[in-house]
Amino acid sequence: QVQLVESGGGLVLAGGSLRLSCAASGRTFSTSGMGWFRQAPGKEREFVAGISWSGTSTNYADSVKGRFTISRDNAKNTAYLQMNSLKPEDTAVYYCAGRAQPISIKRLSDVDYWGKGTLVTVSS
């Protein structure tokens, strides 16, 4: 079992940056694929980015490619989402996600563990 706790959300102006962190507890973090999803008000939860256990394989939603970067530090049991050039449409609750398998997360059905989320608000 893995418990996930997000941090780093907040209010930022359009064009600004934020870095989200996901602290994981449990012995299996270093062998778990990780990912980030987001859910805007009135919308379904959507995939943002995923990373394999080693960090060598990553994947992104088209809407964030070139602006967001997912990474992880297995020594610290932490995954990150660096968000640059933020837009008002990036406003959402961002959720950290983990899976029992070492490969990257690409869709909702891949997820075995969820964090409770952190709110990101991008103001124009």
Overview of this protein structure:
By secondary structure, the protein is mainly beta. It contains no helices and eleven strands. The chain is globular and about 40 Å long. The mean pLDDT is 96.
List keywords for this structure.
mainly beta, 124 residues, 11 strands
Low-confidence stretches: none
Our Rg estimate from Cα atoms comes to: 13 Å
Give the averaged pLDDT, no decimals. Answer: 96
Distance between the termini: 40 Å
Overall form = globular
> Fraction of residues in helices?
under 10%
Strand segment count: 11
Please report which band the strand proportion falls in: under 5%, 5-15%, 15-25%, 25-35%, 35-45% or over 45%. over 45%
Number of helices: 0
- What structural class is derived from the secondary structure elements? mainly beta
Order of SSEs, N→C?
Answer: EEEEEEEEEEE
Major sheet attributes: 7 strands, mixed
Q: How would you briefly describe this protein structure?
A:
With 124 residues, the protein is mainly beta.
How does the SSE layout of this entry go?
Layout: E1 3-7, E2 10-13, E3 18-25, E4 34-39, E5 46-51, E6 58-60, E7 68-73, E8 78-83, E9 92-98, E10 113-114, E11 118-123
Parallel strand pairs: 2-11
Antiparallel strand pairs: 1-3, 3-8, 4-5, 4-9, 5-6, 7-8, 9-10, 9-11
